[in-house]
# Entry
Amino acid sequence: MNLHIITTGGTIDKIYFDAKSDYQVGEPVIGELLDSMGVHFPYTVESALRKDSLDLDDADRSHIRQCVERCRENQVLITHGTDGMVTTGQALRDIPDKTIVLTGALQPAAFTGSDAIFNIGCAIGALQAAAPGVYIAMNGELFDVDNVRKNLELNRFQALR
# Structure
């Protein structure tokens, strides 16, 4: 596998500064996480954005799409905020010959007990097994981008049907 990773910000990269939950999106953490897990496949990391997904607009999604289209790799992992993940995934769905998996975290990677490493691991496994298309890997499941939503009450992703 030769993986290209595009980071866009979101909770996975958030850094909190005080008890009032003041934060900013920090440097991408995925390279450090992969290195600490001892991965042995080649990968590149491109920081496309550093935004909370609630702040993404169509221009940002267009920029993410351009990043995916111009990369040489056929397997693309996108770290993304969970609130806008489905919308961004749907903006990428007709890119041919690429397997694209979006993932993120419900808690920052810097927090003990974060789901970041688990979600990234699931996404990497999916990239090696799934057919070309666009998917979301969250909560231990792989979802087709057109059959998923974030359930805000349960704070998890689930299939629509």
Summary: The chain has one domain: 3-159. Residues 116-129 form the longest helix (14 residues). The first strand starts at residue 3 and ends at 9. The helical segments are 30-36, 58-70, 85-91, 116-129.
